[in-house]
Design a protein that fits this description.
alpha/beta, 9 helices, 324 residues, 4-stranded parallel β-sheet
């Protein structure tokens, strides 16, 4: 978000002030101060609240008279807000359905920051729907919530420990069964800066040759940074903010709410061309009747274009899902 705002404001010659509150109380005070200081001004002012954490603050702002002041709350689906407060969000349904469908070839885990975040809950359900629509004999084993409030977005140590626990469990399972194939899983992290702990452990695991697991890069493109990410789910909040700010700058009255969609290009799945295709994660198991009441197995590596082909096969289906 910050990147998108800074780049656009630089190109448009806009004055930009960044406020970084440490607590909700401080955030509320800063918003109240902005409302007070901009009252009666002839110059236009736009306050961007970067995240659904600020919904309760935005919903209690007094009505803003005139068209010179606007508060833009991003990452929110709420449309009933005081006069002068508008919301915008990138719809996760299509892109997360696609990610879920592409992840269904192994057991899956989801790490979420907190319960009750509407945007995250919609994304998790879409991932589950895509995964289950393309069932390959596995399941989503757990949706782990780290906290009951926003603290879950800033717990990298907890993200690290959770990822280590799952990896160790599957590593031991593979050793006990004598099948590295059973050591595979994929992890979807949806926990803001907590994700850094997840990625850090995954990189350590990769360096230690525990390469049978995979992780999804979330929000931005991690493909150059995570060798064990088959793809990244990219939410283009920077483009959404650019469009909102440019419209406001041109004098447009921003709609009470707008949802920017996967089909419009505001979210996408980006395939990692350097994904470790030699790991057990990138293998398929074939089962054959041995003719004596048992089975024999053979294993093949995935085709080099497996992930890009799956993307092309499933993209239209994901767009239709999002349109429902």
């Amino acid at each position: 978000m910050v990147e998108g705002v800074i780049q656009y404001c630089d190109s448009a010659g806009l004055a930009l002030h960044t406020l970084r509150p440490d607590t909700k109380t401080q955030a509320r005070s800063l918003v109240e101060k902005w409302v007070s200081e901009t009252a009666g001004r002839t110059s236009r002012s736009l306050l961007v609240l970067a995240g659904s954490d600020y919904e309760s603050i935005a919903s209690n702002v007094p009505a803003l008279d005139g068209d010179n002041r606007t508060i833009l709350l991003v990452e929110s689906e709420r449309s009933a807000m005081p006069k002068g407060v508008v919301t915008a969000n990138v719809d996760r349904r299509g892109v997360m359905y696609l990610a879920g469908a592409m992840s269904s070839r192994t057991p899956a885990y989801i790490l979420a920051a907190m319960r009750g975040n509407e945007v995250a809950d919609i994304a998790i359900q879409a991932f589950r729907d895509g995964y289950e629509a393309h069932d390959q004999g596995y399941r989503i084993e757990e949706v782990k919530y780290l906290s009951s409030d926003e603290k879950g977005y800033a717990m990298p140590n907890a993200g690290y420990e959770y990822t280590a626990g799952i990896t160790d469990y599957y590593w031991d399972l593979g050793k006990k069964t004598g099948s590295d194939y059973k050591s595979r899983f994929i992890l979807l992290p949806m926990a803001g800066s907590t994700n850094t702990g997840v990625y850090f452990y995954m990189m350590q695991s990769f360096s230690a040759n525990k390469t049978f697991n995979a992780v999804i890069g979330m929000d931005v493109d991690y493909n150059d940074r995570l060798a064990m990410a088959p793809f990244s789910v990219v939410i283009k909040v920077n483009l959404m903010l650019r469009d909102c700010i440019s419209g406001w700058l041109e004098g447009a009255v921003l709609p009470a709410h707008r949802t920017y969609s996967f089909g419009e290009g505001y979210a996408d799945v980006l395939i990692n061309s350097s994904f470790d295709g030699n790991s057990v994660y990138a293998m398929e198991q074939h089962e054959f009747d041995d003719g004596e009441g048992g089975f024999v197995y053979s294993y093949d590596f995935l085709p080099e274009d497996y992930w890009s082909s799956r993307y092309e096969e499933l993209k239209d289906e994901a767009e239709k899902y999002a349109e429902k």
